[in-house]
Amino acid sequence: MLNAQKIRKDFPILSREVNGKPLVYLDNAATSQTPQQVIEVIVDYYSSYNANIHRGVHFLSQEATDKYEQARQKIQRHFNASKAKEIIFTSGTTHGINLVANGFSSLLQKGDEILVSAMEHHSNIVPWQMLAERTGAILKVIPMNEQGELMMNEYRNLLSSNTKLVFCNHVSNALGTINPIATIIDEAHKVGAAVLIDGAQAAPHIKADVQALNVDFYTVSAHKMCGPTGVGVLYGKEEWLNKLPPYQGGGEMIAEVTFEKTTYADLPHKFEAGTPNICGGIAFGAALDYLNSIGFSEMEAYEHELLDYATNKLLEIEGLKIYGTAQEKTSVISFNIEGVHPYDIGTILDKLGIAVRTGHHCAQPIMDFYKIPGTVRASFSFYNTKEEVDILVEGVKRAKNMLL
Ligand SMILES: *Cc1c(COP(=O)(O)O)cnc(C)c1O
């Protein structure tokens, strides 16, 4: 079993105090904390080999290039992509989705259909709405049920030869639902549609195998996986990445430039215009090393135990309702207390040193579905403990007493 007390020593921030109380960090679905092992890689980059990549003949540039490309290979191995050039460095999930949505502008026609799930983060809705506006494609929604599970029969009924693209998150950030993406991908492929999976919320908990899933695009953000902000990757099948036009023009993404015509660089550079987040990419590789050293199945088992423990304890509080009760879910609990605004609970918890998220969690359609303004969301990582769950539960009770 995973030893959370020992693991916590890797995270300097976890020993700080907030409002005079020991920090209880339960906002991991928004961003994860960074272990010393990754912080050291960041310090080392700026202390010893900061240089621009792919361009310089000089020593430091070569060293930075090597480390950056090694990180790409680490990420390739982690997600089991067949080729390193199928791993495109981005600034994060949002960037990856926009890159694909923009690319499809030239591949869609009026009347083509694109399907989105009812439980998406805004970053997996808005770029597609913009795409639909540009192309005249029709955006349709795969509905969900009261438990926060996608209605797979409805999904099958929506699919047709008009469907060109399906996009869905692997795990919902607002509900924690783990979607049956293998089935979603298979069914879409049967009608010839491509699939983009937003893996931002799954990647910290589940090791996706992009070849086994046969997914066309998969996007993640490093900052939810113990890495730094401002970096992520888009995995894309080579054939799809070759079909899509470049997203941004600039340095690094070209083969040859004249004022008459520019030819583009090969993958992955075609999609990597400008100086990337070099340090971030290298640190992302280190974060994957760190997570793998703990082990995904160990993390999953431990987080599930925390989830069950917290769910049972919270449900003992009268008037507390949990949104997102899917059979398959990660360690996210979205809840409200009858008659109390989520923001007020969050504010009181903050005074007690407990960091949770309140609001619509960038997933307003889910809140509309439940007819609520938002929820309080506690999201647990492998470095959280049962003692912290107890502190949360006591805090929620206290907030309830103060507010009702
Ligand atoms: C966090 C998150 C995003 C957005 O990620 P960024 O790092 O902000 O680009 C998208 N989808 C889901 C499911 C998320 O949890």
Annotate the secondary structure layout.
Elements lengths: L3 H5 L8 E2 L2 E2 L1 E2 L10 H14 L9 H20 L8 E4 L2 H11 L9 E5 L8 H10 L2 E5 L9 H7 L4 E7 L11 H10 L3 E5 L11 H4 L3 E5 L10 E5 L1 H6 L10 E4 L4 E3 L13 H17 L1 H20 L4 E4 L8 E6 L4 H10 L2 E2 L1 E3 L4 H7 L4 E5 L6 H18 L1
Helix pairs in contact: 2-10, 3-10, 4-5, 11-14, 12-14
The structure holds pyridoxal-5'-phosphate (PLP).
Family: Belongs to the class-V pyridoxal-phosphate-dependent aminotransferase family. Csd subfamily.
Keywords: Pyridoxal phosphate, Transferase
Pfam family, one: Aminotran_5
Can you describe what's shown?
The chain contains 14 helices and 17 strands. It is α/β, with parallel strands linked by helices. The protein has two domains: 4-30 and 295-403, Aspartate Aminotransferase, domain 1 (Alpha-Beta Complex); 39-292, 3-Layer(aba) Sandwich (Aspartate Aminotransferase, domain 2), CATH 3.40.640.10. The chain starts with a helix and ends with a helix. The structure holds pyridoxal-5'-phosphate. Residues 92-94, 121, 123-124, 169, 173, 198, 200-201, 221, 223 line the site of pyridoxal-5'-phosphate. Pyridoxal-5'-phosphate is lined by residues 92-94, 121, 123-124, 169, 173, 198, 200-201, 221, 223.
